[in-house]
TrEMBL record:
<keyword id="KW-0808">Transferase</keyword>
<dbReference type="InterPro" id="IPR027417">
    <property type="entry name" value="P-loop_NTPase"/>
</dbReference>
<protein>
    <recommendedName>
        <fullName>Sulfotransferase</fullName>
        <ecNumber>2.8.2.-</ecNumber>
    </recommendedName>
</protein>
<dbReference type="InterPro" id="IPR000863">
    <property type="entry name" value="Sulfotransferase_dom"/>
</dbReference>
<feature type="domain" description="Sulfotransferase">
    <location>
        <begin position="61"/>
        <end position="334"/>
    </location>
</feature>
<comment type="similarity">
    <text>Belongs to the sulfotransferase 1 family.</text>
</comment>
<dbReference type="Pfam" id="PF00685">
    <property type="entry name" value="Sulfotransfer_1"/>
</dbReference>
<dbReference type="GO" id="GO:0008146">
    <property type="term" value="F:sulfotransferase activity"/>
</dbReference>
């Protein structure tokens, strides 16, 4: 489906025709980078290093950043629905019921930069009309310098209370394991995590391979120092007051709602389109799977409960209390607190 109005983007990443491009040999162009890598690093990480050098931001680009299981999928839907409302009007703005989010999973609309480079879809990103929406799980210091050192690409970060994040990851691993066929039993065995493994990975600073407090504080501190560069959202606050947070997004990306749009009910329309119930029930998300970051994920695995505080059903008060205390020491003095 092609956009119909004058505004060019964003468009769903999946709808951009694949563009054939010859990959430049790593050894020639990035020989020094590759030579500096530890020998155990394998090609995906080499490609991420290449990408850190090569990524070229455009004015209007918006990067959605998060730790896994903190509401990435939802933020993708909300940001896509708001930023693309000129191209794809939601129902209240005269939409014809063929909104991309009704036929595509949000991850098919907004790609992960990590996935683009792993899956060698860089040329597709180059072909995407401006403005572009992208996402990442990378920490702030691990972003390409072209993103952090100039103002063309804005960043929206979403965090979530870590006890719910951990429960969500644990369910996600089990659900994906049951439904994904791209990994062998041995490969699954090697990445299987019990609930206490997930809990411990947070304390050990190994959730997504790094300390979550550093991930969060990298974006938090930048949002305080440069509020025009990073908008910092909390999953719980978006759930409790979606209107206020969607308005924050539109103002941050320079597309505030007009009075006419508000009167027409466009905010309510976007909330409804992106609501947990609607997205989970949609055929686009209840069937099929998506290829992402070199793996295959069932669409439905991104929609479980969508609530605040499900951790009480899974861990003891002692486990919760000990993680809370551990993390509050890590954030001490930063001004950052999780929303409960
Ligand atoms: P739960 O497992 O607690 O239900 P991510 O997108 O970063 O992988 O995060 C997934 C979490 O966000 C899951 O949490 C999922 O159910 C929840 N989620 C997905 N879509 C949502 C939506 N539209 N509204 C609220 N929560 C949503």
């Amino acid at each position: 489906m092609q956009p119909t109005s004058a505004a060019a983007g964003p468009v769903p990443f999946k709808d951009i025709a694949a563009v054939a491009v010859a990959r430049r040999p790593v050894a020639e162009e990035y020989g020094d980078v590759v030579a500096a890598l530890p020998s155990r690093l394998y090609p995906p990480q080499q490609r991420w290093r290449e990408y850190q050098r090569r990524f070229e931001p455009r004015a209007g680009d918006v990067l959605l950043a998060s730790l896994p299981k903190c509401g990435t999928t939802w933020l993708k839907a909300l940001a896509f629905a708001t930023a693309a409302r000129g191209v794809y009007p939601p129902a209240a703005a005269g939409g014809d019921g063929r909104h991309p989010l009704l036929r595509l999973n949000p991850h098919e609309c907004v790609p992960f930069l990590e996935g683009i480079y792993l899956d060698e879809e860089e040329a597709k990103l180059d072909a995407a009309p401006t403005p572009r929406l992208m996402s990442t799980h990378a920490s702030y210091p691990n972003l390409p310098a072209s993103i952090t050192e100039d103002d063309r690409c804005k960043i929206i970060y979403i965090c979530r209370q870590p006890k719910d994040m951990a429960i969500s990851l644990w369910h996600f691993m089990n659900c994906s394991k049951a439904k994904t066929s791209s990994l062998s039993d041995d490969q699954w065995e090697s990445i299987t995590m019990s609930l206490s493994d997930v809990w411990e990975s947070i304390r050990e600073g190994a959730y997504l391979g790094g300390p979550i407090w550093e991930h969060i504080l990298g974006y938090w501190n930048t949002s305080k120092a440069k509020p025009d560069k990073v908008l910092f959202l909390k999953y719980e606050e978006v759930l409790r007051d979606p209107t206020k947070n969607i308005e924050k997004i539109t103002e941050f990306i320079g597309q505030p709602f007009s009075d006419a749009e508000k009167e027409a009910g466009i905010v309510e329309s976007i909330i409804e389109l992106c609501s947990f119930e609607k997205m989970k029930a949609s055929g686009a998300n209840s069937t099929g799977s998506l290829h992402m970051m070199a793996n295959e994920y069932p669409h439905e695995s991104f929609f479980r409960k969508g609530v605040i505080g499900d951790w009480v059903n899974h861990v003891t008060p002692e486990m919760a209390d000990s993680l809370d205390k551990f993390l509050s020491a890590k954030f001490y003095g930063s001004g950052f607190t999780f929303a409960e």
